[in-house]
Structure formats: structure tokens, C-alpha cells
Amino acid sequence: MTYKSLLSCLTLVLVLPSCTGDSPNIIAVCEGNNVGNYDIKWETPSRIKGKVKVYASTNPDLILPRNPVAIADVSDQRLTIVVNNPTRRYYYLMVFDNRYRTKIADRKFDVPGIQNLYDMGGV
């Protein structure tokens, strides 16, 4: 093995792990309010600054980050999304500081005749 090949391998070993930084622990909750809109609350590590952008879709596998439905400062730790059609279930993609992403949805289902039905699974 030549010195050039050895140097290339050493560079890859040192550079690649630095590209895979740990994602911070972001906790987010979405709850429907009494007028049919959604209150979203979050907690982030203090190192995350800037804005949080929220994107919406009725398909959890296809939330396109193009036109945000809401934007807030990360430090606000809450926002309300006004929903045009409260009979549909919406899924939200939250993008913090244009870097960190998390998906959320309201866990409570409004089903006639059944009280307190919650989705215990993940999105």
C-alpha cells in the first residue's frame, strides 16, 4: 500500500464520522383544541436556535417541505395551526433550524360513540 493510499484511507476514517453528528432529542406533541385547530408544543435542547417550520399533509409518508403552514421561533415552544377541514387527519413535519426534522400527528381520534380513542403508535 502506498503512502497516498494510506493517507486517503486515514482521511476517510477521520472525516466520515464527523459527518454523522448525533441528532438532538426533540420532543413534540400535537393536540386538537376545542375549536378544531391543532396546538403544537415542543421542547428542544438550548443549542437549537432559529425558526421551526411546520409542513402539513393528510398522508404521513408524503409531507413535502415546500410551503410551511406555520413558522415560529424555536424558543416560542408552541404554535397553533388553523385547520380548514377538521374532519381530516393531518400529519405534520417539523423542521427546526433548517436541520432537524420530526413528524407528529394528533393522537386523539374523534369517533362518534367512542370517547377517548387514542393512537398509541408512531407516525
Report on the architecture of this protein.
The protein has one helix spanning 3-15, and strands at 27-32, 38-43, 51-57, 70-73, 78-81, 91-96, 100-105, 108-111, 114-118. The protein is mainly beta. The protein has a domain at 37-109: Sandwich (Immunoglobulin-like), CATH 2.60.40. The strands form three sheets. It has a four-stranded antiparallel beta sheet, with no helix packed on it. The chain has a three-stranded antiparallel beta sheet with strand order 1-2-5, with no helix packed on it. It has a two-stranded antiparallel ribbon with strand order 8-9. β1 and β2 form a beta hairpin.
What tags apply to this protein structure?
single chain; 123 residues; mainly beta; Immunoglobulin-like; 4-stranded antiparallel β-sheet; 3-stranded antiparallel β-sheet; 1 helix
